[in-house]
Amino acid sequence: MAVAMVLLVSAGLGGGLLCAPEAPAQGARPVVRIGLVDTLLRNTSERMMQLVMRPFKVLMEAQTGMDGHLVLAGNALTLGHKLKEDQVQVGVFHGFEFAWARQKYPGLKPLIIAVNRHRYVQAKVMVHKDCKAATCGDLQGKVAALHATSREHCRLFFERRCTGENATPARFYGQITTPADAEDALDDVVDGKAQITVVDAVELENYRKTKPGRSRKLRALLDSEQLPCGVIAYHPGRFDEADVDRFRAGLIAARGTPRGRQMLELMRITAFEAVPVGFEANLAVVAKLYPAPIPPK
Asked: Can you tell me whether residue 157 is helix, strand or coil?
């Protein structure tokens, strides 16, 4: 999402994007502090974060009539703590990280989800169709491609499920390359430059549409479970319920305008949606399958 947002800012589309709803007749606009989990923008300074996330801020303010203040809030547990202590009113999480935060802070609630075609995300482990490997364990010492804009659930799956037992990817694979994007990573597997890559299911769908011939030279070695997609969350009692409703309704309505849809696409999502039935159960399952990292002592 970060790269796409930078392009959006550079194109000058950050301002005047949508028609804002009428402001309240009396009083100042509500101000909401929005905390971003640090993996949303890896290795990004506060100043760069404000630039990269400017389009999201504009979208939120135009759609909700609220003023937004964005802050980098640390890891998932730190962001959960800040929501509980009312240091921020809204938090933006990757789905599996929200599952971790909920374990420690069960009072947190999902407000809306960020959907990219599907109401879940999935990592796909791809190899050449002629590859003899039956499992990732058969590819020890080979070249793995993990592209530079890989989504966090793909990184998680690569680290947790795509190596031999008790081995880190850096120790297991002979080399880990970082192609620019999913298309380049899949091309590298087709061309024999890498023997394995992990991409998002939607990225694979796009590749199959744009390069059907080359995609037939690939096969899926392993698929992740259906993992929860991105979440915008809050802590009841720390964020006024009327503002919660306005925030939810405004962002869900963003896909109803052409410019709103354009912006969502550049953020690599297709819509904000209400939390679906079964989402809470999925969080519990994912927290067991992918336990939160143990913090260093």
From this structure: helix
Q: What is the C-alpha separation between 289 and 225, in angstroms, rounded?
A: 9
Q: Please, which residues have CB within 8 angstroms of residue 182's CB and are 6 or more apart in sequence?
A: 147, 149, 150, 199, 200, 203, 204, 206, 207
Contact of 110 with 102, CB cutoff 8 Å = no
Q: How far apart are CA 131 and CA 221, in angstroms?
A: 9
Q: In terms of DSSP H, where are the helices of the chain?
A: 2-10, 46-52, 54-64, 76-84, 95-104, 152-161, 169-172, 182-190, 201-210, 212-215, 241-252, 258-266, 279-289
Split the chain (297 residues) into runs of 10 and give each run's mean pLDDT. 36 34 53 91 73 79 89 94 96 97 96 95 98 97 96 96 92 97 98 98 97 98 96 94 93 89 82 94 95 79
Identify which of 176, 189, 177, 178 has the alpha carbon closest to the alpha carbon of residue 215. 189
pTM, 2 dp: 0.86
CA separation (Å) from 26 to 22, 35, 250? 11, 28, 20
CB 89 within 8 A of CB 34: yes
